């Protein structure tokens, strides 16, 4: 076994640990997340791991844990989740939110469990996106690029939307902002979300377009912008339902308005995701 | 576009060790959550206990600790504790945002010099399901 392999794997683990902190530190310091940890049902938390595992898998598909074939993806997903759990647990203990003997084990495990989700997503993104790239050398294994352009764009949108949205969705702020906003604000938010998305992806020139970027159903910038916005709305709605802000008893106006409010964040995240995958 | 690769990496021993540790962490967390999910949850039951012996007095104000415990398994939200002491102007209330099943939190009640901390009583008045 070559020492360079060890070197790359060590770097991936360290990058993942850093990424878990980069991505999830705001949530590790968010009071609502500690409360969710205390109150969330065990079954619901376990169910949350299913989309999280899919998302981590997609993140790793961006470029993979290491160069080469994808046969070790399951191993990499386990490592990424492990990093998420470890970072979540250590941080919560170090900052005093989990104190043995004060916080019962059941609450501690749920707090670690829910915080491990954004940590794992952050770790997966950092492993894949913060990897050093040598100029003029395609040394990043972008398995995702084997997919058609439309799928790449949609997956990148969902990953980015979830990553950004997760930092805001658990808090009470989107709901409070929605309550305080006037009805005319919401169409403005929709228009501004679409404009911001278009500006970030197509005007800001963050990255060179891949050959074939304009192929497929989402080949036109307008189609890509609108479909990505719809995906961001779906992610925002999913978060609001998941964190209990929207229930079957929520009036439809509030459900739609809150979704639009949070979708602004998800749209910016989705745009960042598409920029990164280019 | 799919990049042609000339190099290939296999997982190093470090990856297998990290994966083993990670797998153990995942098993511990998920296993615990599964066990908790299948066992019956007792509803929240709030108890409040005055710990007058650990209080102190400064500038004529007595600070009396009160331990609030959730003896059930389910969490409670907006737990309102009412305390009353002989000689005090009237009952005082304090609210704890969230109390997980089995969790204990300590609050402190400030009493004027005319009140008697030794005979202070505390009780949970209301709480909500989160």
How would you sum up the major sheet of chain A?
none
Span of the ends, CA to CA of chain A: 33 Å
Pick out the low-confidence regions of chain B: 1-6
Radius of gyration of chain B: 25 Å
| Strand runs of chain A, count | 0
Rg calculated over all Cα atoms of chain A: 19 Å
Q: Stretches of chain A where pLDDT falls below 50 for ≥5 residues?
A: 1-5, 136-140
Q: Biggest interface, and residues per chain?
A: A-B, 54 and 41 residues
Structural class of chain B, by secondary structure, is alpha+beta
Beta-strand portion of chain A reads under 5%
Q: How far is it from the N-terminal to the C-terminal residue of chain B, by CA?
A: 50 Å
Write a structural description.
The complex is a heterodimer of chains A (278) and B (130). With 278 residues, chain A is mainly alpha-helical. Chain A has helices at residues 3-28, 31-39, 42-63, 73-94, 105-129, 149-168, 173-180, 185-203, 221-242, 252-277. The longest helix of chain A is centred in the first third of the chain and has 26 residues, at 3-28. Chain A is globular. In chain B, 20% of the residues lie in helices and 39% in strands. Chain B is built from 1 helix and 7 strands; from the N terminus they run αβββββββ. Chain B is elongated and about 75 Å long. The interface between A and B is large, with 54 and 41 residues.
Key structural traits:
heterodimer; A: about 280 residues; mainly alpha; about 70% helix; disordered N terminus; B: about 130 residues; alpha+beta; 4-stranded antiparallel β-sheet; 3-stranded antiparallel β-sheet; about 20% helix
């Amino acid at each position: 076994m070559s020492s360079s392999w060890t070197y790359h794997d060590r770097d991936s683990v360290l990058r993942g640990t850093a990424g878990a902190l980069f991505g999830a530190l705001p949530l590790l310091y968010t009071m609502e997340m500690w409360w969710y940890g205390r109150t969330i049902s065990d079954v619901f938390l376990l169910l949350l791991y299913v989309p999280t595992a899919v998302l981590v898998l997609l993140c790793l598909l961006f470029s993979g844990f290491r160069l080469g074939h994808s046969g070790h993806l399951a191993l990499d997903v386990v490592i990424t989740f492990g990093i998420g759990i470890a970072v979540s647990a250590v941080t919560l203990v170090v900052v005093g939110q989990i104190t043995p003997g004060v916080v019962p084990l059941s609450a501690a495990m749920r707090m670690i469990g829910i915080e491990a989700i954004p940590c794992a997503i952050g770790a997966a993104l950092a492993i894949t996106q913060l990897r050093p790239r040598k100029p003029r050398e395609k040394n990043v294994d972008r398995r995702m690029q084997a997919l058609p352009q439309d799928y790449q764009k949609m997956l990148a949108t969902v990953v980015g939307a979830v990553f950004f949205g997760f930092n805001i969705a658990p808090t009470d702020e989107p709901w409070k902002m929605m309550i305080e906003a006037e009805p005319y604000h919401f169409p403005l938010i929709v228009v501004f979300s679409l404009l911001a998305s278009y500006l970030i992806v197509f005007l800001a020139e963050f990255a060179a377009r891949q050959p074939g970027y304009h192929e497929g159903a989402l080949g036109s910038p307008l189609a890509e912008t609108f479909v990505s916005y719809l995906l961001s709305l779906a992610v925002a709605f999913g978060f609001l339902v998941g964190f209990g802000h929207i229930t079957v008893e929520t009036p439809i106006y509030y459900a739609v308005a809150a979704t639009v409010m949070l979708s602004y964040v998800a749209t910016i995240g989705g745009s960042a995701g598409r920029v990164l995958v280019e | 576009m799919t990049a042609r690769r000339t190099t290939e990496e296999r997982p190093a021993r470090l990856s297998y060790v990290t994966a083993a540790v990670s797998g153990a962490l995942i098993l511990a967390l998920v296993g615990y959550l599964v066990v908790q999910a299948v066992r019956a949850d007792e509803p929240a039951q709030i108890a409040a206990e005055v710990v007058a012996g650990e209080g102190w007095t400064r500038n004529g104000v007595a600070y009396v600790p009160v331990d609030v415990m959730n003896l059930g398994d389910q969490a409670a939200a907006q737990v309102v504790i009412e305390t009353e002491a002989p000689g005090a102007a009237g009952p005082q209330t304090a609210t704890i945002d969230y109390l997980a099943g089995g969790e204990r939190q300590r609050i402190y009640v400030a009493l004027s010099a005319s009140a008697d901390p030794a005979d202070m009583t505390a009780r949970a008045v209301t709480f909500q399901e989160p």
